[in-house]
Design a protein that fits this description.
The protein has about 200 residues and is of the alpha/beta class. Helix content is about 50%, strand content about 15%. The chain folds into 2 domains: about 130 residues, Rossmann fold; about 60 residues, Orthogonal Bundle (Arc Repressor Mutant, subunit A).
Length: about 200
């Protein structure tokens, strides 16, 4: 009997690509996929696949919170996180949340099946490239204050007034912070910098 997989990724092309890759192995069957949100949580708990493959950045709720929720609701199958981010913070947080494996997206075609087999046994698998040295991009208290302000619904104009600085200086700080975190959007910066508190 084939082992079952459910895929959660906000990009349809990525879901389709992983489905094709997984189905090449006759030991595995993809029984569903979706972009995220409540649909993903309900589907996993209803279908109870052997392994869930999920992206860190999802629609509605990030991968970290999704992992925590599934574990809290009693899901005992394997969880494989796929992400474009290789920072140790992400890996450690996913491990604490209950994920079994962490695969960098750029290596997903070479490593996903190995991660599936490991997660199915509730063993661990991490992309070997995660051990490579990382460029330090630490956030200071001012950066965290900016993220908390945005997470609370505050505007850049309001923060500029509170700090008695120009709006341009706040915009520059936000742009630099997005560069530090290597993300494209404010939403991703919030999820990366604040984790579950941004949701």
């Amino acid at each position: 009997m084939s082992q079952t997989v459910f895929i959660i990724d906000k990009h349809k092309v990525m879901r389709d690509s992983m489905r094709i890759l997984i189905m090449r192995d006759s030991n595995w069957q993809v029984i569903g996929d979706c972009p995220g949100g409540e649909e993903a949580m309900h589907s996993v708990l209803a279908l109870r696949p052997n392994v869930v493959v999920l992206d860190w950045f999802l629609i509605g709720i990030n991968g970290l919170m999704m992992t925590r929720y599934l574990r809290a609701m009693g899901y005992t199958g394997g969880i494989v996180v796929v992400s474009m981010h290789g920072r140790s913070h992400f890996v450690e947080e996913s491990k604490k949340a209950g994920a079994d494996a962490y695969v960098l997206k750029e290596y997903v075609y070479e490593q996903l099946l190995a991660a599936l087999y490991a997660a199915d046994r509730r063993s661990t698998y991490y992309s070997p490239q995660l051990s490579l040295p990382e460029t330090p991009h630490s956030m200071d208290e001012s950066d965290l204050e900016l993220l908390r302000h945005l997470a609370g619904g505050g505007s850049l104009e309001l923060l500029a007034n509170q700090r008695a600085v120009s709006l341009r200086s706040i915009e520059v700080q936000l742009a630099r912070l997005r560069y530090k975190l290597r993300v494209d959007s404010v939403e991703e910066a919030l999820q990366m910098g604040l984790g579950d508190s941004a949701s």
